[in-house]
Amino acid sequence: MIKQSAADRIYHSAKGLFYERGYKKTTTRHITREADANLGLIKYYFDSKKVIAYRVLDDYFHEIYYSIANYVNEDEDPLLYSYTFTHTIVSLMFQDPKVERFILESLTNEVMDHLEGALLKSPFYTISEKILKEHSFSEILDTEQTILLNLTAFHNTLKSIGSIRRQRPDSFTPFQLRIYQFKMTYFGLGLIVSEKDQKLEEAYELSNRIIKETPFLNAPETFFTSPQNSLRW
Fold it and tell me: Domain locations in the chain?
């Protein structure tokens, strides 16, 4: 058995606790106790609980992103790729309330600041550039401004979806909330897409297929509870 480093133990312990207890109810002492480490090591390797949460979120979103690559060529249809990614995230939140709780609780402004910085160096930025080159959008903003604004809108609408589900859990179908997500992000930023309803429906069906056929997505808790996932960074 390969011995895990202190950073690995802290990271994997935090993932499991975030899933089981939620982000808010998990303290750094819970993490160090589970990881058999001291508080100083969290400061040394991660700086804070917020940074651990950011890295867990970043890894989780990347796992989803790359799972879609087996089904969609991002160069041929970047918009379908991006739509499918968003559909899949919302689907997984509906599928597992613990995943939903972690995502909604951990998307604090501080964590979003980390995600924003990482976005500019990530494949998400590249695919967003491809979308904006292919489709018309507001000429008031440049590409980077549009992409960063899209990230903020994505964050805010996920929070709104969580609020709606807590207050009126049976009032909206998953598909209705996905449409709301798109209205507030891509189309809300002035993106002009012909036959957008067909594209959304295609992404919806493809997302369901990907989740069904991908073990990690079919059982989203495995990302948080399996010690086999190694740190990407």
Answer: 1-47, 49-218
Q: How many residues does the chain have?
A: 233
Point out which residues pair with 136 in neighbouring strands: 192
Amino acid, single-letter form, for residue 36: D
Q: What are 35's two structure tokens?
A: 């990881």
The pLDDT value recorded for residue 119 is: 73
The Cα 224–Cα 18 span in angstroms is 8
Query: Cα 141 to chain center, whole Å?
Result: 25
- Name, in order, each residue with C-beta under 8 angstroms of 143's C-beta and a sequence gap of 6 or more: 128, 129, 132
**Among the residues of the chain, which ranges form H helices?**
6-21, 28-35, 39-45, 49-68, 78-95, 97-106, 109-119, 123-134, 143-167, 174-184, 196-213, 215-218, 221-225
Q: Supply the pLDDT for residue 233.
A: 44
Please give the CATH architecture assigned to the domain spanning 1-47: Orthogonal Bundle (1.10)
Query: 132-149: per-residue pLDDT in tens?
Result: 777 766 666 677 777 777
Q: Please provide the average confidence, as pLDDT, over all residues in the chain.
A: 81
User: 136 in helix, strand or coil?
Assistant: strand
Q: What is the pTM of this model?
A: 0.82
Q: Are 129 and 143 in contact (CB under 8 A)?
A: yes
